[in-house]
Amino acid sequence: MITKEEIMEIVENYDQDNLSIATVCSHSSLQIFYGARQEGFRTIGICVKEPPRFYDAFPLAKPDEFIVVGSYKEIPDILAELRAKNAIVIPHGSFVEYMGGEAFAELAIPTFGNREVLEWESDREMEREWLEGAGIEMPRVVKPQEIDGPVMVKYHGAKGGRGFFIAKNYEEFQEHIDPNEKFTIQEFIVGTRYYLHFFYSPLREEGYKLSTGILEMLSMDRRVESNADEIFRLGSPKELEEAEIIPTYVVTGNVPLVARESLLPKIFNLGERVVEQSLELFGGMIGPFCLETVVTDKLEIKVFEISARIVAGTNIYLAGSPYSDLVEPNLSTGKRIAQEIKLASSMGQLDKILS
């Protein structure tokens, strides 16, 4: 992984009065570009093969310029061009997954956030060590031979739910598992899925204070997952099994959520613990992150995963959410990222938010 010292040497040669914000044209790029423009930054869209035409339909979120590459593997070839434009890269799930975590970690370009989180987030054993070390309650891990009830089988990395499946016994697990993929098996928790969108700022001092900086909770969503959310319109579980119709969990979209207000203390406590543990383990995760949770009928909140960057569920709230509007009207996560970069630059503390 490229060192922070190497990155800051690049930043020292930047014209910090003319910073630009760059990301790959996918995932949450519309709000990243829109938020950057609202804060006065020039924007750069990195795209594969050709600029996507749909940006023409959204002029407020269209990048000021595009840089075209033949594939994600060619992104290292454009770093000199990005550096010449004083670019700061914003990572998102598609960016990291398609390029590959190891290749992304080596990019010689200033990146918003702490790259050291990649290792902890992408490996599910390390992720569990992090979250359980923070005192977070998670679904129980199950060994294949010990499956005696519904479990969720997940592959490592940010795959948007692709390939995930539920098994009720060892035979079903063997039938569906891809032996070439690294996987984790968790007990299936019955409840409502809440995806909690936080933002950690090491710079601001007013707000929900942590040992260093503050924690913000900007929004919540629930994911719409391919046929899993509609499949039972076709019949009972037994009828579906007889018709060989199998639930799939590929994320196709997101819907907004608001939690009952009495849950907010628990929600903030979860975010606080995760950030404090990240500060202890690897110097902290900077900026947006998402805790993926299930809320049970006993109002217990169990965390089954963390995404340590902007997630696509925040796309619902380009003009603010019921929560972010109480921080600042019309505040999106994309805009909040741009604000943090702008604040760090004005304070001469870009080293606290870039890696």
Automatic annotation (TrEMBL):
Signal peptide annotation: none
Ranges where the ATP-grasp domain occurs: 101-332
Key words of the record: ATP-binding, Ligase, Magnesium, Manganese, Metal-binding, Nucleotide-binding, Purine biosynthesis
Keyword Transmembrane helix: no
Domain of life where this protein originates: Archaea
GO biological process, one term: 'de novo' IMP biosynthetic process
Family classification: Belongs to the phosphohexose mutase family.
Annotated protein name in UniProt: 5-formaminoimidazole-4-carboxamide-1-(beta)-D-ribofuranosyl 5'-monophosphate synthetase
Organism: Methanolobus tindarius DSM 2278
